[in-house]
Every structure is written in C-alpha cells, then in structure tokens.
Amino acid sequence: MSHCPREQEALDLVRAGRWPDGCDDKIRAHVAACVPCGECVEIASMLTADYRSAVRTAPVPTSGLVWWRVQRRAREDAARTVARVVTMVQGLSVLLGIAVAVGIAGADNLKRTLAMVSVTTLPQWSIPLLLAITVWLALAPVAVYFAVSGD
Amino acid sequence: MTHDLVMNDASLTGVDQKTKAAAYGPMDEDSFRAFYDRTSRAVWVYLARVTGDRQLADDLLQEVFYRFFRANATHADEAHRRNSLFCFATNIARDANRRKVRSGPAPLALDLEENADLLRIDERVAERFEASTDLARAMAQLKPMQREMLWLAYALGSSHAEIAEIVGIRSGSVKILLLRARRKMAALLGGKR
C-alpha cells in the first residue's frame, strides 16, 4: 500500500509535538502496523526535530544589516547599468565619428583617385577596401557591446 | 519570538491585521524587515539542508532576499509572498548545487572519528549527533528536488499545492514524487540501522 488515509492525521500529531506521548493508543497502534504511516512519522519526526533545533541557532544577520546590504547592492547595480549604457553611447559616438571621418576622407580620396587612376583599375582595390570598412562598421558595435557587458 | 513552530504555523503565516492592511505590494523598509524577521531563519535552514552546506547557506540567504526585493512583486497574501520567497530560495540553491557538482563534492561537515570524544561525553548528545549525521547522509544521497520536497512537506508542513508552486512542478505530480522521495529516504535511513 502506498498511501494511507490516516497519514495526515499522523503528520499533524508530529508537527504539533504530540507524537508519541500526546496521542491515543489507537493511532499509535495504527502507525506501528501501517507502513506508509510509519514512514511518514519516522521521516517527519526526524525532519521536524532537525528543523526545530536548527532554526533556533540559525546564524542569520539582523534585518537592519540585510536591508542596508540590499539597498547598497541595488544602488551598485543601478550605477553599473547606467555606466554600461553611457559606455555604449560613448562607443557608438566614437564609431559614428570615425565613420563620418572615413566617409569624408573616402569621398575626397575617391575624387582624387578617380582623377588619377583609370576606370579599369579602380574596382581592383576599392571594392576590398569598401568591404573591409563595411565589415568593420558592422562588427565594431558588437565588439564594444561584449567588451562592456563582460561583468 | 519563538522559532519552534513549523512553516504552516503562526510564526510564519500568522500576521496581524495591521500587517495585512499594509498589503502585499512592493516592500518598504518596515515591511521588508518584518518579513525578514519572520522568515529568514526558516529560509536559512532550508538552504542549509537542501545544499548540505551551512557556509553556503549564509551567502545564499543574502542573495535570496536581494533577488526577492529586486523582483518588487505584488502578492495576494502572506502565504503567497512566503511561497514566492521559497521559490527564489529553491532556484538559487539549485544553481549552487549545480556549481558544486561541477567543482566536485564537498567534504562531510562532521567527522565521526574526529568527534569520537564528543560522542562519549553524553549518550543523549551522541544519539542526537548520530541521528543528525544519519539524516544528513541520507539527505545527501537524495536528488536536490527530493530534498526540497521532503523538507517542504515534512519539516515545514507545506501543502501539495505550495510544494508544486515552490518546486516548479504540476500539483498533480507532487503526491507521487513525494512518495518516491519518502520511500528512498526511508530506505536510506533503514539501511543505516
């Protein structure tokens, strides 16, 4: 038999501290004969006794100290979040500045280059350069993100 | 305040009408501290028994209350708030247990040979010491979820619905899982005697 309808009754007696002395002979006899109730009482008695002795000596800090730590940590976390956002914005600003500078320089160079080189040689070096700049502009913000979110 | 009573008794669930009127929304300092005073010891013992490590329980207790506070949740009543707290404790203890598994087993907290003198001092002390050692060893051989369920059901007196909420399983599964855990525990304890 896996369950017994009197398990709860036996458990209530253990939790109320009435097992085994504060209960009647009928329930004691039942628990002695019933395997599920016997298991329940044995385990509940051990765990309840362990809980009661441990809870008296539990070395918990005071509520005032925990409140202070919680507040301090909440402030630190908020400051860290703000710092992360600021770093992200700074990183993106720098990248934007570089992109604009590269764009201006690129446009200027392009004019000069177009004037100097022939139309047939231009694609040979400008396409890889443009590809490299595009990849760099795409990956740099991702790299910055991982750099600042490492904590 | 007495801490003798188990979780389903007045020390943890019974709050006065004034506290009830303060509702169960986001906590200010007074409500946080009062709630901490009512529950911290039970949570610490739960963490210590589920992880099997008292020192770890010290660290985890702070983490539990921090995350609980940061969640800033509204609760229906004191029992719901307490179950939510134990839910945080369960998840944090599971993370800690996973880290422990990765880093290898911790040494046993009590060494019977080293403490042999203590055992001879007083038969009653020795009996209690042996009983708690048996209990600790049996608990250590259970799966983390079995430890959680047994502790919640038999030490704290939580209902099946509360256990389901805290452990994160369907309410209908609690009965059979708890039965298996209980049988395994009984076998482990029986094997020691």
Could you characterize the architecture of this molecule?
- The complex is a heterodimer of chains A (151) and B (193).
- With 151 residues, chain A is mainly α.
- Chain A has 2 domains: 51 residues, no CATH class; 69 residues.
- Chain A is built from 5 helices and no strands.
- Chain A is elongated and about 110 Å long.
- The two termini of chain A are 54 Å apart.
- In chain A, 17% of the residues are buried.
- With 193 residues, chain B is mainly α.
- Chain B is 74% helix and 0% strand.
- In chain B, helix 8 packs across helix 10.
- Chains A and B meet through helix 3 and helix 4 of A and helix 3, helix 4, helix 7, helix 8 and helix 10 of B.
Please describe the structure with a list of short key phrases separated by commas or semicolons.
heterodimer, A: 151 residues, mainly alpha, 5 helices, elongated, B: 193 residues, 0% strand, globular, disordered N terminus
Q: Low-confidence stretches of chain B at least 5 residues in length (pLDDT < 50)?
A: 1-6
Outline of chain A: elongated
Summarize the main sheet of chain A. none
Distance linking N and C termini of chain B? 37 Å
Rg of chain A (C-alpha, Å): 37 Å
Mean model confidence by pLDDT of chain B: 79
Beta-strand content of chain A: under 5%
Roughly what percent helix of chain B? over 70%
Separation of termini of chain A?
54 Å
Q: Residue ranges of chain A: pLDDT <50 for 5 or more in a row?
A: none
Oligomer: heterodimer
The overall strand count of chain A is 0
Rg of chain B? 18 Å
Mean pLDDT of chain A: 82
